[in-house]
């Protein structure tokens, strides 16, 4: 017992008793062929029989001490084996069921090469194990030729071990991890195969390839489903970074860990969806990456499991781990969306949603955790409340005695209050064993004695659990036309709804009345739908970093299209299914008016996805922390919809008669059908009652009005389909605007004014004489002297520069004298602080260059007033057409990239 020492009692803050094994007890390792049936061994009277399976790791192997990384799920760590024990006790025989796999892979001495195993799970009836396994490293192969992670299944009764995808070629085409069973026997897993993404690339006329996750380090691993025989693979999640650790909840929903990296890493959160790919939404954790003091911390939610009482069990994992273990917590996801943020229907709760799963004194924020570290945790479903766990207690290296010899080794001692406060004691390497916690007895029973050269990274109980239910789907199977077109629908009740607050200028009721708020007074006019672009690895296409332009934050983006926002802020439109997309709210000029909505959305074919409104992603407001993006957590919509049935909205077109509670978008689409996206910005005032007021003027910004190359294909210019996109490359579509001949001629054909951009914004005039470019802005299409991989115009527009002046036939940076705060000139000094004099003995005044700010900003068109102002109300008004300004605006809003198609960009 470890309960009598006052120096250690404080470490155990739960009523635990630890049962220690006598030194005579040892663990018997069995070879892979031995029988572990329950009849072979007599039951231990202390423990109710439950077989267990364990991933055991041999730490004596070189490279085995590397830790798993969330960001690299395909990382190979050698030295794993999968162990079965007939009962959860220390004397049960260990059987290595993977001992004979890859037996032909041996080193020069004939020793079996080490393999790797992870993501262990059981079937709901307890008859099978499923896991990820990787064959040994091939020292003669390149990185891209190494074996891949594959899904394996073990049938306990027949002792059959098989790779689920039997074909060697098919198995090698992706890194498959994190398998779990669906209720119908199919297998859900994470994979870099990106089966749906690659099919879409083919439809777009691009080669098929697996895209990199958004930090461009490894291929993105996302959720797939396959039959039990490895056939009929289907991608169901379309994140552009990793979707990992899937879990099937009792209600049939899938929970998984999503790495959100749209516009930069925002952490790993819990998401949920249906197995058919519908109803994707965040479940928990967007604003829960904080430590105990409320400061931002490297804490993420992984290794999900469900407890018998329906809570979620997760590991709190760092991106960069130096320990196998961490801490586990249970989360009340029913009532909370963040640790201290309840769902709107339970707003009286204050949290926390997270509770320690085992030991209160595990502290992963400290350099040394008093409660040790947990590597794996599995709750039993036998009604006992017991939990299996892999744990290393807190251990320290004691200081050597003053007279210690050079060959003496520091001893390892358990942590105590005294030793933790003594700086001469240092953290010892962890030592993991397997344990069983029994809450009814308050005991912690050892199942496998810790060994110096071994650790236990995963454990499961081989027992039956309730089968999940079939979840309700948001796919309308009667929408055959929508399904056949590979489309879904999004419905936003009001873009003015920010987490339950009305942010419209005059209130939604007034906004919906065109006699009160005219169309040109509405700030939100159109919804823009954008799409990510999968970035290939360097073996597929080795592009220069300059392809991304000024910033790589947004990578590359395409525009799927536009749809009008109705007067009450509602939107209902058909969008491509199985595509990661984002939304932007734009004004009448096509400029985004709010922060980027930096979360990837998706719909399944035939699905209608409804949300109340928008949210503030700034992380510094009360609104930011309110529930959003999860339908059962949000505040009810502020848009109550139509006040009655059978009559129009107040003072609107009587032909658009509403049903009670409908948004204006629902009314419009019920009568006229759900509109498709359009590549052009188009508006017609359908809501004005002609008997009451004159309809507002139409808005038409069409690509067809451009006199330069279009960013869409000819076929998409004729008919916009689910595979159409606008792809805007600066050299191909923006630069030609500056070079387009805009000369104005009189009736005799004589040029009276030349508004061609490069006529003035050029370092050479019409006679090829050197000049200072107009307003210090050069828009020529030559390679930039500052970076030859960018055009001069791009560099001038996007980067700060210095003023130039013409001196003795040369363009040189303009220099101005420097004065101190008192207005006195500042002179050059030598290293001794003495004045430096010129040839005439006069002090030399310090000069400095004059900066010129960039005219454009990659954050968007609304932050690029330096460029747009002259065209809107200044000297250049009317020189660029509305269609041209619209294309420049959307290009800036998606990130102002140099290229938005990697296959158009220069390669290394």
Automatic annotation (TrEMBL):
<feature type="region of interest" description="Disordered">
    <location>
        <begin position="621"/>
        <end position="650"/>
    </location>
</feature>
<feature type="compositionally biased region" description="Polar residues">
    <location>
        <begin position="634"/>
        <end position="643"/>
    </location>
</feature>
<dbReference type="InterPro" id="IPR011042">
    <property type="entry name" value="6-blade_b-propeller_TolB-like"/>
</dbReference>
<dbReference type="Pfam" id="PF18582">
    <property type="entry name" value="HZS_alpha"/>
</dbReference>
<feature type="domain" description="Hydrazine synthase alpha subunit middle">
    <location>
        <begin position="553"/>
        <end position="616"/>
    </location>
</feature>
<dbReference type="Pfam" id="PF07676">
    <property type="entry name" value="PD40"/>
</dbReference>
<protein>
    <recommendedName>
        <fullName>Hydrazine synthase alpha subunit middle domain-containing protein</fullName>
    </recommendedName>
</protein>
<dbReference type="InterPro" id="IPR011659">
    <property type="entry name" value="WD40"/>
</dbReference>
<dbReference type="InterPro" id="IPR040698">
    <property type="entry name" value="HZS_alpha_mid"/>
</dbReference>
